[in-house]
Known about the structure:
The protein is of the alpha/beta class. It has helices at residues 14-21, 34-47, 58-69, 83-86, 91-96, 112-118, 148-160, 172-179, 183-187, 215-225, 234-246, 251-265, 295-304, 327-341, and strands at residues 2-3, 51-55, 74-79, 99-103, 128-135, 164-169, 192-196, 207-211, 282-286, 307-308, 310-311, 316-320. Strands 2-8-7-6-5-3-4 form a seven-stranded mixed β-sheet, with helices on both faces. Bound molecules: pyridoxal-5'-phosphate. Pyridoxal-5'-phosphate binds next to α3.
Amino acid sequence: MIDLRSDTVTKPSKAMLEAMFKAKVGDDVFEDDPTINLLQEKAAELLGKKEALFVPSGTMGNQICVRINTTLGDEVILEYGSHIFNYEAGSPATLSGVQIHPLNAEKGFLSIEQINSAIRPDNEHFARTKLVCLENTHNRAGGTVYPLERIEEISAFTKKNNFKLHLDGARLFNAVVASKTDVKEIVKHFDTVSVCLSKGLGTPIGSIIAGGDDFFYKARRVRKSFGGGMRQAGFLAAAGIFALENNIERLEQDHENARLLAEEINRVGGIEIDLENLQTNIVILDISKTKFNSNEEALAALEKEGILLVAFGIGKLRAVTHLDVSKKQIQIACEVIKNTFS
Ligand SMILES: Cc1ncc(COP(=O)(O)O)c(C=O)c1O
């Protein structure tokens, strides 16, 4: 099987497993795990933030940040296709008691005009606008990279209005590599950031969240209340350290593989791919003009030939490249997809 459903399907490499096996561990609830402490220090330094915390998942990371940036009854502005709004089980409401104000934006990029028009007046009838969340890269928009100038504008705007700004950077390093930008230059504009280690970076589990003064204390407290306190999880943190040291630059290969796949299969049997929008490792196939009557039918036909993709809305499939698919496998996938759709 060539599994292109997500960059979360990777298995730890032998070298990563060896690093995990050698890890020194302790009870992290006592802050006694040296490998977790080291990962947190390294991540804070890499991201240019004062403090960082290791958390079990991207969802928990985002939700801890939503909680520490808001109070009950506040409103959070974000993009309509964002992960926090669509795929986190309604947690802003259930875990933080906040209301989401989603805005539809081309490529997933909010503008300050949009944010400005969504702000609620300071009046007892309205929820208080408190937090803006951006997603970079933007998954549903097809792995698009937020332009740095847009981030700068939004950050200046949120600061002026006294709102907090959070970055869901599940795939932040894909954005960094694709735009050849120093990660600190992006992250410095945000109060808090969440970065997944278990996507393109290839670890079995875990995310890093980071922020400024008192972040560690506040975030640890919320992580505990969400049931995310960990014990000898240094084995997992070792995978994170390995990933930060070895798996960032190589994301470029995933981007090249995504482009190869997209260019080869675009227009075959009616498949349509927005090549201009393709910037990182996510390829969205519009299959509404192909011979298949449904996503399920197309996915089943591909699976029979050894290729796994996922449905991504009506008439759309998603393919994601990652460190467990080689260029050779992408070439095979191209041939299979061409034959299946022709
Ligand atoms: C953009 C984005 N944010 C957050 C997450 C959540 O990560 P996790 O699956 O580790 O909870 C994902 C996962 O797919 C994602 O794509």
